[in-house]
Amino acid sequence: MKIDSQHQSNSDKAPDNALMVDHPSKTTRHKEAFMNGRNGADTDENPKDLGNEGAPHDQVKKDKKVSLLKKNGSEKYDKKDYLGALVDFDAACHIEPLCASILNLRGEVLRKLRKYGEALADLNLADKLQPDNAYTLSIRGTLYKEIEDYPNALKDLNRADELDGNDFFVKTQRALVKNLTGDFEGALIDLNHEAIDLHPNQVFVIGYKGVVNRELGHHDIALGHLNRACELKPDPYVLRRRGVTRRELLDYQGSLEDLNLANTLEPYNDFTLSERGVTKKVLRDFQGALQDLTMANHIKPDQAFTLKHRGSAHRELGNIDEALQDLSYADTLEPDDFFTMLELGKTKTQSHDHEGALIHYNRVVEMEPTDPRILRQRGCLKRMLGDYSGALEDFKKVDEYQTELFDVLLTKMERCFTKYAMKDVAGALEDAMVVRNLWGVNGQSSVKGEKLKLATTKNGGLSECESSMSQKLCDIEKSTSRRLMLWIEHSKLVFSKSLGRGSFGYVHRCKWVDKNEDVAVKYVSSHHKDAFEYEARMLANIRHPRVVRFIGCSYNEEEKEGLLVMELMNQNLRSLIDSKRRENSPPFDLPVAVDIMDKIAEAMAYLHDQGVLHRDLKSSNILVNQSVDGKEEYVVKIADFGMAKLQGKNNMPYFMTVDVGATLWRAPEVFRNDGCHKYSFPADVWSYGITCFEILTGEVPFEGTTLSQIRQKVLCGLRPRLPASCPSILKSMLTKCWALMPCDRPSFANIHKTLKLYLGRDSIDPKAGDVIHPQELRRLLS
């Protein structure tokens, strides 16, 4: 199944149709129309033609002036001076308002200027004055095509063809309309007519024959036509189409060469850029693909084809939020598109929204009910959601349709995992033996055999599903020097309710039966076991009153999920802000707000001192409890270390080159990340500054703007606007947190010290290197 060449509905209409219409025959046609206007073609409505016996002297002068205006207008049209031509034709129409030939000419110029309503009015009047004029019908048919009124376009062009069956322009325009309406055979009949074969502009004709044959699925024939057209002239339109055809024939390098040359000959063409982006994506140059698709979207926004492939590139790069935004928008522009549905399913699977992913996979299966790989993926999703019988039903269907050994083995393996989850150990071992035997005989030395080996390793292995995560968790406990981790039996954790989603997993409220204690439990699937182990190790070695307390680990054998057990907090900071926010007033009194800011800074100072770069600091990852004494004072703790990283072994900061973290809280250096720009601890300081803005105002920064607009604003120096009532000491501190250069941002140790001074919790030490100068602080506090 090909999913890289879905460029049918929107891309074949524009921008290339404009090129097809601009054909030299139209210049000749204008000259013919001009001559017809002079030689009696309009005698029905204008019997007093130039040179008639007995014509009054004034009429002769008028006719001469009209002829001159028509001639000048036609010459300007030939030079593409459409506004100048319109002035002349307007003047001629003012003298002779009921002259069909002049109306035709003015209608054609108005069409070129995209003034379709006025053009249609002129051509309708010309048709009424002089019915069945092939020229009028051909131009009006072309206009109908451009406004996508294809039935009327075909009606006019068919009648024009009846009147003049050897007209090149009519044949080509009708071929275009037939192609756009899916009548590819009819389009080929027009393109193969002898009138077209004799026309000098063979590059366009031959190239378009290639386009239509591609639509019919005759890719080899299409490539032959396109090759011949390119030999005659390397036209950008033909090169674009050949590039797409070569990609569909799996000649990816040839496709890239054609699209590069098309872009050189005609830069900034959205069709070229979007198709080149798709080719780069197939070649796994996702960063290059993203650049081309973003440029194409900038040139011509709201194109479903561009958005869905840019969303796919974002997904491959791990930009899940951006991928979901592009794909969801593409789905609204072009509902029920197969590629968009499939990519949405994959993206939501990566974001652990398995229920949402299943909805899209169900829609995809409705479109392609016999595709074995899609059925297998849906079966895996059903297994993750606990629908084991539904998963086995999908795997059974896969057996009916799959043909490749690799697919057979993968399906058997997934069915093995499903049976094991159902505690059907005998059935699981039976499937495992089949996989091992088939793989051992046919696949161990092949490339796909290595892929299967990798797949079985990722899913935990086959012997008793070889799910050794529980053993690995025991190894974590043994390797943790401080032995702070407790092993908790999964059966002792009773689910209560869902709390939300963290990085790499879902968080639920559970009752820990042994301790009769409510706890928060983060569930991480086996697909992310490396991230699970990393986060467990990190949490086990962190102990601070401002960091959420890690209790221990567990493992769910049925679901193949690792569990991180942590203390339960009442809510996150964002939900607290939303509950206390009032119109035109901040959510907290200033002392309360600064107290929360200080506690976050204290926690982050500790983490940075331990070499931990959080990378996902935001209000929803900060947990709060209200003080038990009833005062408006809060216990504040940092949570969710799924994205965090430890410093290097040489005690130097761990410089990152991976683009992570929620977009609204991203520092400029993270936005600039292209694999070369590095970022470290100051990136957390930036995120802290954005979180402080939420605490002080209750607002989400840059609310109502797209992800790309946020990136542009941040990189251009735009920062959230603090209210006038905010003390200058806090404004100065946050301005430094939002410095463009990471080296200009303060450390959390200095931020904590400054806020303690503001709250009166510490004395002033001029040597401490505070964010705010002590003299300014004394003045403000006084």
Provide structural commentary:
With 782 residues, this protein is of the alpha+beta class. The chain folds into four domains: 202-300, Tetratricopeptide repeat domain (Serine Threonine Protein Phosphatase 5, Tetratricopeptide repeat, Alpha Horseshoe); 316-466, Serine Threonine Protein Phosphatase 5, Tetratricopeptide repeat (Alpha Horseshoe); 480-567, Phosphorylase Kinase, domain 1, CATH 3.30.200.20; 571-781, Transferase(Phosphotransferase) domain 1 (Transferase(Phosphotransferase), domain 1), CATH 1.10.510. A six-stranded mixed sheet has the order 1-5-6-4-3-2, covered by helices on one side. The protein has a three-stranded antiparallel sheet with strand order 7-9-10. Strands 8-11 form a two-stranded antiparallel sheet. Strand 2 (493-502) and strand 3 (505-512) form a beta hairpin. It is globular. The relative contact order is 0.04. Mean pLDDT is 77; it is low at 1-54, 441-485, 648-661 and 763-782. Residues 45-61 have a biased composition (Basic and acidic residues). Keywords: ATP-binding, Kinase, Nucleotide-binding, Serine/threonine-protein kinase, TPR repeat, Transferase. TPR repeats lie at residues 100-133, 134-167, 304-337, 338-371.
